[in-house]
Amino acid sequence: QVQLVESGGGLVQTGGSLRLSCAASGLTFSSYAVGWFRQAPGKEREFVATISRSGQSTYYRDSVKGRFTISRDNAKNTVYLQMNSLKTEDTAVYYCAAARTFGDVVLITNRYDYWGQGTQVTVSS
């Protein structure tokens, strides 16, 4: 079956960095756009970043532009989220998700077919 497994979360101080990984199995990875989402306690899940099937196109929410970078390695069936200059408001559970697509990036949350279990990111001041 399809599995998406996130890793790389943890506790970091303000201004620090983390790199999240999302390892996929059970699907033709290069046929899927992949997105990162996050959910903080008491808040709705929100979109963070997404990357197209080839990796040539990316899109970010405004609050992470210039700080986060999404990338993928289709040979390893893995997508990464490099997070720099972390802020306390980045604290959340981070999820990756995959969307079957023939096109570019996928910006609509309910288009995502498969979701991981999440990894906790905590940024302390």
Give a topology summary.
Layout: E1 3-7, E2 10-13, E3 18-25, E4 32-39, E5 46-51, E6 58-60, E7 68-73, E8 78-83, E9 92-100, E10 114-115, E11 119-124
Parallel strand pairs: 2-11
Antiparallel strand pairs: 1-3, 3-8, 4-5, 4-9, 5-6, 7-8, 9-10, 9-11
Describe it for me?
The protein is an all-beta fold. It is 0% helix and 50% strand. Strands 2, 4, 5, 6, 9, 10 and 11 form a seven-stranded mixed β-sheet that branches. It has a four-stranded antiparallel β-sheet with strand order 1-3-8-7, with no helix packed on it.
Report the count of strand segments.
11
Shape: globular
Stretches where pLDDT is under 50 for at least 5 consecutive residues are none
Helical coverage, percent range: under 10%
Q: Could you give a short account of the major beta sheet? A: 7 strands, mixed
| Straight-line distance between termini | 40 Å
The ordered string of helix (H) and strand (E) elements is: EEEEEEEEEEE
Number of helices: 0
Strand content: over 45%
For the residues shown, what is the average pLDDT?
96
- Class derived from helix and strand content: mainly beta
Radius of gyration: 13 Å
Summarize the structure.
With 125 residues, this protein is mainly β. Helix content is 0%, strand content 50%. The protein is built from no helices and 11 strands.
